[in-house]
Amino acid sequence: MKIAKLAFGLICLAILASNIVTMSRWSEARGVYDDICYLRQAHLFQRLGIAGLNTNVVLDDDDYAKGRWKEIAYAEWSDSTRWPCHNPMPSGNIVIQYPPGTGFLLALFPEGHQVVPLYVAASLIVCGLALSGIAMARTQSSIIGAGLFGALAVYLMINPAKASYSVAPTMAICAVAGFLTALWLSRDRRSVLLIALIGLLLGASVNFRLPNALLAAGYCLFLAGAFLSARTLATFMQGLGFGAGVLVGMSPTLIAQAINAGSPLATTYGSADVVAPAFDLAILGQYLRDMQFVLIVLAIGSTAWLLRAGEATVRQVALVVAGNLLVNLVFFLSHPIFTPYYIVPIAMLSLWSVWFAWLMREPGWQVAALRPQPGRLEALPQ
Q: Is the peptide bond before 160 cis (omega within 30 degrees of 0)?
């Protein structure tokens, strides 16, 4: 088994090395409109500090954005009212539609060399968790499953994660949150701090993509159900901790919306992104022909298997994942726009959660720090 673990670990590292070589050749001027908007947000942070949350086009007085649009031969580069991924607000300001998280992370790196370090850092986090899962495996079947999933997770950091700068950090957060979800429900259901940390991570993911707010849906349903069923202080504190974590995590986006749209609850997105849901066979067909369909099948299949696994703890993980999948799939399959990455975050959060829950149910895997201690809240009902 040690040889198998070593072999799969080397495979994951080889894929990571190949990804890094490929990423090192990427250009930050590939002609994608969204890229320029994320880089403009990063430029504002580097130039103005926290004031860079304000993305009004009048702040382009150094002609950074105009230069970027001109660089890719955008015909209306000189007219800021026509810039892509910018929308007019009731105040008259024209602002970037995206939340500030991706731009903030890009701003941590030197201008002109921002995208590659962001992707490499996110890939290292994903690969690290993949290697941890392989190391945790105790049986031949779990080693094979962990190795195959780990290799897939690392590969996905190139495709489809390259489609949008917001996907790479989202994938890293989904990996960490999936591990913590399995840990919370499989090993440490008494910890309010742990569920609050999961909420903080999922809230922080909203700063990369607003639809990431839906990643918390399954947790909300599960915690609400637990409280309504037991009505204990423990279940109430679990829900309160999670909600507080989500709110704190997404606070940068709420502040940015207050600055740019006039209210924390007002959106900076255009009308095409906020239309009422309506199922369209054309959209469904696009998903069926895309790699996302494979990921969703894997997520649904593994969740169903976990529900039948027998242990109450792992079934609770499966219930959280099932609720999350249901809410997210209903939303995205009824959304009028298709992209090759919309469903990837929920698929990966689900798969990471199920995968780690599967590994943690095996005999011999323990975390000494998670043994019951006096003074902790009672566990959620089984």
A: yes
C-alpha 379: how far from chain center: 28
> What six digits make up the tokens of 316?
């609770």
Amino acid 382: pLDDT: 36
For the record, the structure tokens of 157 come out as 């950091």
Q: What is the DSSP string of 89-157?
A: -TTS-EEESS-SHHHHHHTTS-TTS-HHHHHHHHHHHHHHHHHHHHHH--SHHHHHHHHHHHHHHHHTT
φ/ψ (deg, to 5) at 94: -115, 120
With CA atoms as reference, report the closest residue to 327 among 214, 176, 230, 237: 214
Backbone angles phi, psi at 11, to 5 degrees: -65, -45
Beta bridge partners of 86: 96
Question: Would you say the pTM of this structure is higher than 0.85?
Answer: yes
Mean pLDDT by runs of 10 across the 382 residues of the chain is 93 98 92 94 97 96 94 92 94 95 97 96 98 93 94 96 96 98 83 94 97 96 93 92 98 97 92 67 89 95 87 87 96 88 96 94 54 39 36
Q: Which residue has the tokens 């947000």?
A: 41
DSSP codes joined into one string, 160-215: TGGG-TTHHHHHHHHHHHHHHHHHHHHT-TT-HHHHHHHHHHHHHHTTT-GGGGGG
Reduced to 3 states (helix: H, G, I; strand: E, B; else coil), residue 373 is coil
Q: Count Cβ neighbours within 10 Å for each residue of 303-320 and write b for 16 or more, e otherwise.
A: beebbebeeebbbbbbbb
Return the SS3 of 88: strand
> Which letter does DSSP use for residue 72 in this model?
T
Torsion angle, alpha carbons of 29, 30, 32, 33, to 10: 10
